[in-house]
Every structure is written in structure tokens, then in C-alpha cells.
Write a structure and sequence with these properties.
Length: 536
């Protein structure tokens, strides 16, 4: 069996276990997971497939592809579940690893591709989002596919139109996943790079024509159907108010321009320690190659674009993680951690920093788990000690292999350490934290308290998790206090979910007759469910 085939098989098995193990073992967590699963559920219940709906109202924030994927998975599995909701992210998260292996092989060699795929799979943010019912792992697959097909296609002598066709198809799916970003990322990377390289023939090549025609037909057809279903108001809200306008100003997720300079490093753990060295080596006279410059350009241009944007979240940066993984993979292939004679400071210093960090983590984890974990965990000491053993053991073995110059072994030990810690976390830690994060227990109490004809409301908070776990698709979402008071004075029996502090203020109003039906906690929010009528 060829080495490339072995690499692919290993990545499928490794990524399959890492991303799919216990994928449905905990409830959907706010803010995005229950909202997206509820939209897919409402599609299955007949709200429509062209225009997404949430709480039986038109949902303007995202196009339908990701919800189609969720709904299709739920149909295949016999119903919407936590596993079905997260399946698209895990599936496309896995296939992005294979794409990155292929791209790394074409840019450098198959070993760089393999190392880069492992780095991507075990970086904290990518690993987490591949387990979440979020759009960004799916989007990253399509943006990476478009970039890969454009780049590889450009250097092919024959049949490049086929790869360009796939590239434009991937961009079309990217648009259906997250609108303009599905085009902006590959266009900035590929268009900007070939402009910088003065490769004018890329832009003049008629091989683009079939792909452009496919893209226009695909997106044009969807926009026509959306217009027929929702009119110009829907398209204006979807394509501008809820998306493009947030580049300039936003009511939520507003962050300073330097946000990602602070945010990216801890989301690219543990490989961030090698990232500065990768830049230094890759841009040096000895390490500089046009292929590295391509990965570097990919990273910088997307980092700059999202930094300029007013709205910022950790997960928005995910499409540049493959580029970061390629740069670190190239460094570790050129300068293996345990190779004979390779004791250069450029690689030894970051490795020793990582080992020291792992050692300090092993010492502090039991203490931190005991102090902080008591709020979230049933067994903080056990979890702290076992996590410390995994982290400390991995650090010790990696350092031992490094001391004995076992070439790539220190790298693989770090990968296995992340793998083991992830599986333990998915088995033991996340299910315990779920008791703190889940809206299911309070939702079950609400369903038990509801009677035919009752109306449920939510005051000044995200309500999708209660849609999902109560099964009610027409919850009254209240933002203004006057609307809340009017709701509580309804002639019918109503229930309303709110924070404790809001209930305490309402108690002081003698004109309101309210009582507590249930209490609970979802994340850091302590909640009360109140009613204007006693339970009959």
C-alpha cells in the first residue's frame, strides 16, 4: 500500500474517532446550536425549505444550506437529535483534513500535508467547532475546497476547467452556507495572491467560463426562488441588513480591531507556540518558497479582512486555520523536533515552552478543577487529576523523545495527548458540564406546567433553546418591559421565562398577580418561570 493511501486511511480513522466519538452525548448549547437545530426542525415540520424559519417567523440571519444538511441527517436517522444536528460539522470537519492533506502534498510534499492535517485536527478552535452545530466548519470545507481547486487547477496543463468548475461549485455552496463570506475568502486569497505574483493568465483564462456559468445558475436560481417566496424585503434583510451591513456596524459582537491578535493565539493551542517560528523560518532565505508565501498570504489577508470588520467572533477566523496549519506543518517537516543535529533555537525554544506549559498545566489542573469546577462538575478532583495525568504524561513522553532525538516522535506524542484529552473530555467532562449548560431540564419543567391554551413567553434572552426542548414553535419573544407587563395581564394563562433579577423587580409591582412555576439555571443565567395564573 502506498504511503499516501496509508496517510489518508489514518486521517479518516483518526479524524473519524476524534470528531464523531460521543457526538450526541450532550445537549445543544446556546447560543447557536439549539437555534440552528430548531430551524432545521421547523423545516421538517413544514415551514418551508427555501426560506428558513425560527419560532415560526422568517429567519434572516443565514441562508438555508446548513439547515438542509441538518434536516437531511435527521430524516436519515429518524428524527432530529443532538447527533443529527452536529453531524454536518463533524463530517465536513473530517473532509477538510483530507483536503488539507491533498493541498499540502501539492504545495510541498505528502508529509507536510499529513502533519498539517493532524495540526488542524488537534488545534483547539477547529477541534471544538467540528463538534458543534455551527456553520463555520462546513463553511471552512467549502472555502478550502475552492482555494485548493483554484490553486491546483492553475498549475495543471490540461483539464483545469474541471478543477475550476469544482472551485466555483464550492463557492456556490459556501454562499448557501454563509452568504458573501463563501466568495470573499477564496477571491481574496486566490485573486489577491495571483495579482501579487502578476499571474495575469489566471484572470484571462477561458477555463473559468463553465465554472462562472455554474455559479451564476446555481446562486441565481436560489435567489429567484427566495424572491418568489419572500420578496425583495427578505433578500434585502438577508443579503445586506443581517450580513454585509455588519462589516461596517453591528449591534452585537462588536470588538476592537486588535481582537483577533489576542484571540487567535489561545484558539490555535497547542500549535501556536510554533507559529512565530514557522513565520520566521518560512520567510527566511533558507525556508522561503512560493508555496509557503501562498499559505502566508492566505493567512494574512483573511486575518486582516476579519480584523477590519466591525463584527467579530472567535469562529469567524476558522477559514484561515488551514493556512496556519500548513505553515506549522512545513516548519515541523523541515525541522523535525527530534531529528539528529536539529537543535536550533527556532524549534527547540517553542518546544520547551510547550513542555513547560504542559508541566505547569498538570500541576495546576487539579487545583483549578477543585476551585472552579465545583460550580460545573460533580467530580472535580477526579477530572482534575486524570486530566493532569494525561497532560503531564504527554509532556514528559514528548520531552523524553526529544532528548533521545526520536525525530517525529515528539510531534506525534503531542497529537496523541490532545487526542486522549479530547476523548476523556467528551466522555467525562462535557457530559458533566452539560448539567450546567443545558436548557432541557427547565424546558421539561415548563412542558409539565403548561396546559392547553396557555401561551409561553421569553423575556430579554435567547429563546431558541426553549423552542427546541419544549417543542413549542410560537413562543412570544419579549424585549420591552411594557410588552412584558401587557403579556402578564393577558386574560389567558401565560408563562414567561426570565432572569431572576427581572422577576425580583416584577414582584415589587402590586398591580401584577404572578407566581413562580419553575426555577432553573442555563449556563450562568439563573432563571424563573412565572405565570399570571396558579396551576389549575
Amino acid at each position: 500500500m502506498k504511503k499516501s493511501t496509508l496517510y489518508v486511511v489514518f486521517l479518516i480513522v483518526f479524524g473519524g474517532i476524534l470528531f464523531f466519538y460521543n457526538l450526541g452525548g450532550w445537549d445543544l448549547w446556546n447560543p447557536d446550536e439549539p437555534r440552528y437545530a430548531q430551524i432545521a426542525k421547523e423545516m421538517l415540520q413544514g415551514e418551508g425549505w427555501i426560506i428558513p424559519h425560527l419560532n415560526s417567523e422568517v429567519y434572516l440571519d443565514k441562508p438555508p444550506l446548513f439547515f438542509w444538511l441538518m434536516a437531511a441527517t435527521a430524516t436519515a436517522l429518524g428524527g432530529m437529535t443532538e447527533f443529527a444536528a452536529r453531524f454536518p460539522s463533524a463530517f465536513f470537519g473530517l473532509f477538510t483534513l483530507l483536503l488539507l492533506f491533498y493541498l499540502g502534498k501539492r504545495l510541498f510534499n505528502e508529509k507536510v500535508g499529513f502533519l498539517s492535517a493532524l495540526i488542524l485536527a488537534t488545534s483547539v478552535e477547529y477541534l471544538w467547532l467540528a463538534h458543534r452545530a455551527n456553520i463555520d466548519a462546513t463553511l471552512t470545507f467549502f472555502t478550502t475546497a475552492a482555494i485548493t481547486c483554484f490553486y491546483v487547477g492553475f498549475y495543471k496543463r490540461q483539464g483545469k476547467w474541471i478543477l475550476y468548475l469544482f472551485a466555483y461549485g464550492a463557492m456556490a455552496f459556501g454562499v448557501l452556507a454563509k452568504l458573501q463570506i463563501g466568495v470573499i475568502v477564496p477571491v481574496l486569497v486566490i485573486g489577491g495572491y495571483f495579482l501579487m505574483q502578476r499571474e495575469w493568465r489566471f484572470f484571462k483564462d477561458p477555463s473559468h467560463i463553465p465554472g462562472i456559468a455554474l455559479f451564476v445558475a446555481f446562486i441565481g436560481g436560489w435567489l429567484a426562488l427566495a424572491y418568489l417566496s419572500g420578496g425583495k424585503e427578505y433578500l434585502w434583510g438577508l443579503l445586506y441588513q443581517k450580513t454585509a451591513a455588519t462589516f461596517f456596524e453591528t449591534a452585537s459582537h462588536a470588538r476592537p480591531f486588535y481582537y483577533y491578535l489576542v484571540n487567535f493565539p489561545y484558539n490555535f493551542v497547542p500549535w501556536i507556540v510554533f507559529f512565530p517560528s514557522a513565520l520566521i523560518f518560512g520567510l527566511s532565505a533558507k525556508g522561503r518558497k512560493k508555496e509557503f508565501i501562498f499559505a502566508f498570504f492566505w493567512f494574512v489577508v483573511i486575518f486582516a479582512f476579519f480584523s477590519i470588520s466591525e463584527a467579530k467572533r472567535d469562529l469567524y477566523l476558522l477559514p484561515l486555520y488551514p493556512a496556519a496549519a500548513l505553515m506549522v506543518g512545513y516548519l515541523l517537516e523541515q525541522l523535525p523536533l527530534g531529528a539528529e543535529g536539529v537543535r536550533r533555537k527556532i524549534i527547540s525554544i517553542p518546544f520547551l515552552i510547550l513542555v513547560i506549559t504542559l508541566a505547569l498545566g498538570a500541576i495546576s489542573l487539579p487545583i483549578v478543577a477543585a476551585i472552579k469546577g465545583k460550580f460545573y462538575l460533580q467530580h472535580p478532583w477526579e477530572i482534575g487529576i486524570i486530566s493532569a495525568l494525561i497532560v503531564g504524561g504527554g509532556g514528559f513522553l514528548a520531552f523524553h523523545a526529544y532528548q533521545h532525538r526520536r525525530r517525529d516522535l515528539p510531534f506525534y506524542i503531542i497529537v496523541v495527548t490532545v487526542f486522549a484529552l479530547t476523548l476523556y473530555g467528551l466522555t467525562r467532562i462535557v457530559p458533566e458540564v452539560d448539567r450546567y449548560k443545558s436548557a432541557r431540564p427547565l424546558s421539561q419543567a415548563i412542558v409539565s406546567a403548561m396546559r392547553p391554551g396557555d401561551q409561553l413567553g421569553v423575556y430579554q434572552m435567547e429563546g431558541a433553546s426553549f423552542n427546541y426542548y419544549t417543542g413549542y414553535n410560537q413562543i412570544k419573544w419579549l424585549e420591552e418591559e411594557k410588552d412584558l407587563r401587557q403579556f402578564l395581564r393577558s386574560p389567558q394563562r401565560v408563562l414567561c421565562i426570565m432572569r431572576d433579577r427581572h422577576y425580583n423587580l416584577l414582584q415589587k409591582d402590586p398591580t401584577l398577580s404572578i407566581s413562580v412555576v419553575a426555577t432553573g439555571q442555563v449556563g450562568h443565567k439563573r432563571l424563573a418561570v412565572i405565570s399570571n395564573r396558579q396551576t389549575p
